[in-house]
Design goal:
The chain is an alpha+beta fold. The chain folds into two domains: 44 residues; 166 residues, Umud Fragment, subunit A. 17% of the residues lie in helices and 23% in strands. It is built from two helices and twelve strands; from the N terminus they run H-E-E-E-E-E-E-E-E-E-H-E-E-E. Strands 1, 2, 3, 4, 9, 10, 11 and 12 form an eight-stranded antiparallel β-sheet that branches. A four-stranded antiparallel β-sheet has the order 7-6-5-8, with no helix packed on it.
């Protein structure tokens, strides 16, 4: 019967022992990385660091642009009082175009009022006008306040105005607008003697004529104190829209 044994040169069966290991050569796991592997690892590291740097730069640019836009282009404001009801409610938020500092008639405007704009004791540049007078104030105090107000432009430079029952008569024509909240009577609603708006100034009033501290008491606002014109309201959601 043929044998399945493998025979060596001496006729004796070969012995199949354990495989031998060259102890002078380090195992594969201990071999040094090849230059190709090193280069790949460096590329991956550089790619990760590059992505991190790109993300940081992107965020920084986005924040910088947002700050620039807010400082010079568009700025949000929150309405703190009822002086512009029904147009603007307390807590409503608006966007203001800071590039538009020359408002038109009936624009809603954000501005710094004169320093005399104190609701408890407003000061007109002409003590004979304003509170408890038959004339609205046509002369503001010379310095701007640090406060920020939002009102409606109801008189332009050079206009002649008087106020009857909270409505402005401008150059002989009565103001007509659904935005006007009834004044409710009283001396603050009537300034029947005509005044003239100085050049470069705007006469501002709140739509809630009986609850507004405005140009009637502390005078028109110089153009240089105008921050911008409101153009959009974004909160609350049910009032979203353009002016």
């Amino acid at each position: 019967m043929p044998s399945s044994r493998l025979l060596g040169d001496g006729g004796e069966p070969d012995q199949l022992g354990e495989p031998t290991v060259d102890t002078d050569r380090p195992p594969l796991s201990a071999e040094r990385p090849t230059p190709l592997l090193i280069a790949g690892a460096k590329r991956r590291q550089r790619g990760f660091l590059g992505s991190v740097v790109e993300l940081i730069v992107t965020i920084a640019v986005a924040v910088g642009l947002a700050l620039l836009i807010q400082a010079f282009v568009v700025k949000p404001y929150r309405i703190p009082s009822p002086s512009m009801v029904p147009t603007l409610q307390i807590g409503q938020r608006i966007l203001v175009n800071r590039l538009d500092t020359h408002p038109g008639l009936y624009d809603v405007v954000v501005f710094h009022p004169p320093a005399g704009a104190n609701p408890d004791s407003p000061i007109c540049g002409d003590p004979a006008q304003g509170t408890n007078s038959v004339q609205a104030c046509d002369k503001p105090t010379p310095r701007a306040s640090t406060q920020t107000f939002v009102k409606r432009v109801v008189g332009l430079p050079g206009d002649r105005i008087k106020i009857i029952n909270g409505h402005v008569w401008r150059n002989g024509v009565e103001e007509k607008g659904s935005y006007v909240e009834p004044c409710g009577g009283g001396p603050n609603c009537n300034f029947p003697e005509t005044i003239r708006i100085p050049p470069g100034h705007y006469f501002m009033m709140g739509d809630n004529r009986g609850e507004s501290d405005d140009s009637r008491f502390w005078g028109p606002v110089p153009q240089r104190w105008v921050i911008g014109v409101a153009f959009f309201t974004y909160w609350p959601p049910d009032r979203i829209g353009f002016f």
